[in-house]
Specification:
two-stranded antiparallel ribbon
Length: 130
């Protein structure tokens, strides 16, 4: 993902997510303190970038001698289900918050994702509350 003149590379089975801002008020208008918002077990956000996936060894190297060179990569990756632009609901405890140039991102492992919503505007008709 390009961020200015730098590139952010997500590794392994992780996702880079831009978190949604949680509602600071209830439906009746009461303001909620930050400690209440942090107790929610599920959080949501937009997937900005994904890692290459789960690494698995390349078994084509098994029949070659270790000293022989090979032009094939040593590892292959099983791709992730999440794609850029998906809307993800994930476990808050598993996410790691990072700040880069005054922007907050979350790095979330694929195993913490509960569901993905894919489409033009996934929240237009949905009534999901994390």
């Amino acid at each position: 993902m390009q961020f200015g003149n730098r590139e952010i590379i997500v590794v392994g089975d992780r996702l880079l997510v831009q978190p949604d801002n949680p509602d600071e008020r209830t439906k009746v208008g009461l303001y909620l303190p930050q400690t209440v918002l942090e107790r929610e077990p599920v959080q949501a956000g937009r997937v900005l970038a994904t890692g290459p996936g789960y690494p698995v060894p390349n078994l084509a190297h098994e029949d070659r001698e270790p000293w022989q060179e090979s032009r094939q990569p040593r590892h292959h990756f099983i791709p992730l289900q999440a794609e850029e632009g998906d809307y993800a609901l994930f476990l808050r405890k598993e996410a790691v918050e990072i700040r880069y140039r005054d922007t907050t991102f979350l790095v979330v492992p694929q195993s913490a994702v509960l569901l993905l919503i894919r489409g033009e505007d996934p929240l237009e008709d949905a009534h999901l509350e994390p």
